[in-house]
Design goal:
By secondary structure, the protein is an all-alpha fold. It has 26 helices and two strands. The chain has helices spanning 22-62, 67-72, 74-80, 93-109, 112-120, 126-136, 142-151, 158-165, 168-174, 188-193, 195-210, 223-234, 245-254, 263-270, 277-285, 293-298, 318-349, 352-363, 370-381, 386-393, 409-432, 438-445, 450-478, 482-487, 495-504, 509-533; strands at residues 301-304, 307-310.
């Protein structure tokens, strides 16, 4: 009797042992195998995503991100859109009022100094301008505060402000509650009648509860609130009905007789630079959420109100650093090839026991701190160092003409060649060890000289090791910054030293991210060129 699941005469689809179609069963088994394989490598994928992909993505985002201007000066940015910097006229009084509100809130949050630092990258002096104004802005509203309090002392009571601008249920819950109290809930009627004051009070309440951990119904109101209240009451068509209506009506009747102050004059009295149209043009230029400014700065250009401009010649440093980095990295790679190739050939052609002993000498630098090795070269290369002393002792160099081998490109190349040489020797050795020595003997038996046999037979087979070592050394060299910082001086530093400076010292992370992105792009382009010329498939590690 023939099994129906395996019968060649059966007209229907072939079935598995459990009765399902064989193709479906095979697809299911293949999916299970793929899922099992994915689960096995998922820890590695997650690790790469967290430690490699995510930081690169964050770097790319930081190189164009520019939220700080719009987040710190939201009202000013909105009003400033219509201002034309080409007229050389200052913005309107309304713009200065918007700046007053934004600066007051930013000064309370201590955000104005960070904004000043950001804009100082584009225009020197803005940082001190924002710091000085941040100290003075609290005094701008005292004129109105004194007049409202003189009119009625009830304006000093935090609960009065809470009843006017807070929802009744929120006021009832907040009164007597532990700090910071329930989340603030605005009253819609107040927002309609007194829009500017209601908006400022909402920020006041949110700041107290989130930043100071205080209850708004217990804390004295900002002086900014009195100024905003004056602006709302002074406008035509005021109509209010709600809590403290009589108090507000009294204030509305008295407001026409209040002494007033121009916010424009207040800012100019605080710092005359607020009368410089270039300051306002810089704020306007860098108000968008995303900006090409960091990349332009990295290319020795700048984004101005008039468009993209080249930086002055005395400020163009980044292209010099990029070209120096590429040139010196290639020089270091070539030096490692010239020094590492004979060593790798010797290790590959010696008896195994002897080669293993000598390999310890190649690996020995890995057991010594990078900082120690670099510092040792600083001692050896300086004018009163070991190398100069030996040259003077044997008479090759006069004592008054000692060689300058430190704090320049030569010192960087020497020190980094020594540090990166093992990374060239190891790939070369691993490839050379797989080349059968019989090939050379066969070439010689056919009449080739030692040089011809080496160049025509041995060397082509070692090229994959040269490629692997070159990529490894070049990529490591192009990103080094400790060694160039110690022995490079002003002419031997890399672009990586500037990136480290902006990350740790100037805190210009956007420019550092742009420089890093350009460096990454340059490496990828060189990698692509290498693949086109040599072929990445020819790179082997043994």
């Amino acid at each position: 009797m023939t099994d129906s699941t395996t019968s060649p005469d059966q007209s229907g689809p072939m079935l598995a042992a459990d009765g399902t179609p064989l193709k479906k069963s095979l697809r299911r088994a293949l999916r299970r195998q793929k899922m099992r394989a994915l689960l096995l490598i998922s820890p590695l994928l997650i690790f790469i995503l967290v430690t490699f992909i995510a930081p690169i993505a964050d770097m790319l985002f930081r190189s164009v991100e520019n939220d700080i201007v719009g987040d710190t000066l939201p009202r000013t940015v909105t009003v400033l859109v219509d201002w034309d910097p080409d007229t050389d006229e200052l913005p309107s009084e309304g713009t200065y009022r918007a700046l007053y509100v934004d600066m007051f809130v930013a000064a309370e949050r201590k955000a104005h100094t960070r904004l000043g630092t950001r804009l100082n990258y584009e225009m020197t002096g803005i940082s001190s301008l924002f710091r000085r104004t941040g100290r003075d802005v609290d005094d701008f509203g005292e004129l109105y505060q004194d007049q409202f309090v003189a009119l009625n002392e009830a304006w000093e009571d935090p609960m009065v402000w809470a009843r006017i601008f807070g929802d009744a249920d929120w006021v009832a819950e907040a009164e007597g509650a532990d700090k910071p109290g329930p989340d603030f809930v605005p009253r819609d009627a107040a927002a309609t009648a007194l829009p500017t004051t209601a908006e400022v009070y909402a920020e006041f309440a949110e700041f107290l509860q989130t930043e100071d951990n205080d209850n708004p119904v217990e804390e004295d109101p900002w002086s900014l609130l009195y100024t905003a209240l004056y602006w709302d009451l002074a406008r035509n068509g005021f109509d209010y009905a709600g809590p403290e209506a009589e108090l507000i009506a009294e204030a509305a009747a008295a407001v026409p007789g209040f002494e007033t102050a121009s916010m424009k004059e207040n800012f100019l009295d605080s710092d005359k630079d607020w009368g410089n149209p270039e300051v306002w043009a810089t704020i306007q230029t860098y108000s968008p959420r995303y900006t090409p400014g960091y990349f332009l700065n990295a290319a020795d250009m700048q984004l101005t109100p008039d468009g993209i401009e080249q930086r002055p010649a005395n400020e163009q440093i980044y292209w010099i650093l990029f070209k120096r980095t590429i040139f010196m990295s290639m020089t270091i790679t070539i030096s490692c090839i010239l020094l590492g190739y004979p060593v790798a050939w010797l290790l590959a052609n010696l008896p195994m026991r002897t080669a293993n002993l000598l390999m310890i000498l190649v690996l020995l630098p890995f057991w010594t701190s990078l900082l120690v090795r670099t510092s040792a070269w600083k001692v050896m290369l300086q004018q009163q160092g070991v190398i100069n002393d030996v040259l003077v002792w044997i008479g090759l160099v006069d004592d008054s003409s000692r060689l300058i081998m430190i704090n320049n490109q030569f010192g960087t190349i020497v020190a980094m060649t020594h540090i990166l040489l093992p990374f060239m020797i190891l790939p070369l050795f691993s490839v050379m060890a797989t080349i059968p020595p019989t090939y050379m003997r066969a070439a010689k038996s056919l009449g080739a000289t030692d040089w011809t046999a080496f160049w025509r037979v041995y060397f082509p087979q070692s090229v994959p090791g040269i490629g692997a070592g070159s990529i490894l050394v070049f990529i490591l060299a192009i990103g080094y910054y400790i060694t160039p910082e110690i022995v490079g001086g002003t002419t031997g530093t890399f672009i990586s030293n500037r990136i480290a400076y902006h990350i740790s010292s100037s805190l210009n992370w956007g420019l550092a991210a742009a420089l890093g992105t350009i460096l990454l792009a340059a490496v990828l382009i060189l990698y692509w060129a290498y693949d086109r010329i040599v072929g990445i498939d020819n790179v082997k590690l043994g």
